[in-house]
Amino acid sequence: MKTEGFYAKRIHPIVMMALITIVCILVTATLHLGTLDRVRTNEQFFLWRSILDAAAIPHDGQPASVAALYQEGVTEQNGIFHATGPDGSLRYVKQYTGPGLWGPITVMVGFSEDLTTLSGVSIVSQNETPGLGARIEEAWFTAQFADRQGPFTMVEEGTSEGPNEIDAITGATRTSESFRNIINRAVADSETIARGQ
Amino acid sequence: MAAPGMIKKTFLAPLGKDNPVFAQILGICSTLAVTNKLENTLVMTLGVMFTTALSSWTVSVLRKWIPSRIRMMVETMIIATYVIIVDITLKAFYPEMWKQLGPYVGLIITNCIVMGRIEAFALQNKPGLSLIDGLASGMGYAYVLLVIAFFRELLGTGTLFGFQILGSWWTSWAIMIMPPGGFFMLAIFMWIVREAFLKEGSHE
Predict the structure, then answer these.
(1) What is the CA radius of gyration of chain A?
(2) Most CB atoms within 10 A, among B35, B50, B147, B203?
(3) Rounded CA gap, B203 and A99, in Å?
(4) What's the pTM value of the predicted model, to 2 decimals?
(5) Residues of B in contact with A100 (CB under 8 A)
(6) Closest approach of chain A CAs to the CA of B130, in angstroms?
């Protein structure tokens, strides 16, 4: 094989790499910028939907109606969302984050007007095991916290009886415990909402 | 253009005796990670098919201009670009799915099948044939994962694509959803396939 010249050995690889890098970055950057509005709309939709869920305001899950309901009934003050329920009562929704098994779990916790009862709980983001810990997103699990007073204890899935008992998720004990801790911290924190008014 | 026999051979090999998962034992990490729900598995395998097919094609088109000493950097760059296209598309148009798959889509970049097919095939073959090889390798990966996911989701939660299949009498095997379930199902699948179809001498 003939020995490579200076161009083939030094210049060509650099030029080639630079060209490919530029093309690749152009493609991905264009796609990113082109979908940016859509991605932001999606993120806002998820946030608004979780606030409505925590405030127990019924919605059909469609982006347009979620946006309408949010703009109609929710205002934000110092990071606390004030929402008016269908019966006219006020609910306070605040975001809490705590450690899960694999990564942080961020939830919206809704309080009734007198701050003693939870109106609802919804997940903003989580990174738990799909099929196990990620089942905290399932409606039956979060619905357990609605209209209940904390602090809560976790019991085996399908065995909750007492007023403060919550069914944990089978196979996801650590996630269930982390979730309980986040909610109990929120319950203990409800007085700061009262002071924040 | 390559002979029709060559095209057929290129297409069929990754589906059978040269299957990336059960014959070459590549891409095992994601095989274990994403196969506990059929829906996630389907989206993930479509992403891998898209990436293997188009990155093989692109490298094959450029193969005469890529200096061999920087070829891996170029390949990684091309693979990463296609994976980011998949990621951004999911993020913009299927955000619920994107949230569920989390980091797995980005990890397609490190899937050995993608770079394996580029190194082993696309660098020596014409673009059309490389496209077929990449697509078939992705399909070979896809059907194995879907079979494993079918059993893991059915036994682990009693559902398929999230729909309840088995009645309330069924006690879900939580272990099927967890990583050990992936190891067991993959091992059983390989055992059956190798015992039944890949008898001695029929694979290299």
Answers:
(1) 24
(2) B35
(3) 48
(4) 0.82
(5) none
(6) 20
Angle between helices B4-12 and B127-157 (to 10 degrees): 30
**Full domain range(s) for residue B157:** 21-193
Q: Is A21 on the interface with B (CB under 8 A)?
A: yes
Dihedral angle, C-alpha B97, A24, B30, B124, nearest 10 °: 140
Residue type, A115: L
Q: Is B145 a member of any domain?
A: yes
| Counted domains in chain B | 1
What is the sign, positive or negative, of the torsion defined by CA atoms of B33, B171, B189, B46? negative
Tell me the two tokens of residue A123: 């997940």
- Give the amino acid at B18: D
> How does pLDDT run along chain A (197 residues), one tens digit per residue?
556 788 888 888 899 999 999 999 999 999 999 999 999 999 999 999 999 888 888 888 888 888 888 888 888 887 888 888 777 888 889 999 999 888 899 999 998 888 888 888 999 988 887 777 888 888 888 888 888 887 888 888 878 888 888 889 888 889 999 999 999 998 888 877 777 65
Residue A104 near chain B (CB below 8 Å)? no
Task: Round the CA-based radius of gyration of chain B to a whole number and report it.
Answer: 18
**Residue B173 forms part of a structural domain:** yes
Q: Taking CB atoms and an 8 Å limit, are A131 and B74 in contact across chains?
A: no
B36 → chain A, closest CA residue: A131
Contact A27 B85 (CB under 8 A): yes
> Which tokens hold the place of B66?
């890529």
SS3 state of residue B53: helix
- Chain B contact present for A30, CB below 8 A: no
